[in-house]
Each structure stands twice: as structure tokens, then as C-alpha cells.
Design a protein that fits this description.
Blueprint (H helix, E strand, L loop, with lengths): L17 H7 L7 E6 L2 E6 L7 H8 L7 H21 L1
Length: 89
């Protein structure tokens, strides 16, 4: 178990320590779920259920992929570049 004490700022915010963000793979834009039970608060990363047809087809090939989210970003960037180039033609 990893535990660390952090301060709450005037707006009620806390900063998640980098070591925890890294372990949970939380970055800018990541969604988290905050649950309260009795007097305890639990924070966990929101599971992403979304997949694309491209991701599903790549997964079916069983290629060694380390980071599916990064692959999704790169695919989206390539599609955007393609559409921008095509629109300029």
C-alpha cells in the first residue's frame, strides 16, 4: 500500500503525488472516481470502456502494445493530419 499525507488548499483541492499518478497512470484529462463511505474517501481511475474499430482490429493481431491510450492518441493525430492534408488539396 502506498500512502502519503497532502494538504487541502483553500478551494478544497489536493494535489495527487506524482508517484501515485504514475502508478495509476493518471495524467491531464484522466477521469477519476471519488467515492465516500462512512468517513473514508477513495479515489480511483475511471475505467475506460471506449475502444475504436482500429484498436479492436489491432488488438486482434495480438501485437506487443505497451500503451493503448498512447496508440489511440497517435491514431487520432494521424487521422487529423490526413484530414487536414486532404482538405487542403
Amino acid at each position: 500500500m502506498l500512502a502519503q499525507t497532502v494538504e487541502v488548499d483553500r478551494s478544497g483541492r489536493v494535489v495527487l503525488p506524482k508517484s501515485i499518478r504514475d502508478r495509476l497512470k493518471i495524467g491531464p484529462g484522466s477521469e477519476v472516481v471519488i467515492e465516500m463511505k462512512d468517513k473514508e474517501v477513495t479515489l480511483r481511475r475511471q475505467k475506460q470502456e471506449r475502444t475504436t474499430v482500429i484498436t479492436e482490429r489491432i488488438a486482434a493481431l495480438r501485437l506487443p502494445v505497451g500503451d493503448w491510450e498512447q496508440m489511440e492518441r497517435e491514431i487520432a493525430e494521424c487521422v487529423n493530419d490526413f484530414e487536414t492534408t486532404r482538405a487542403g488539396v
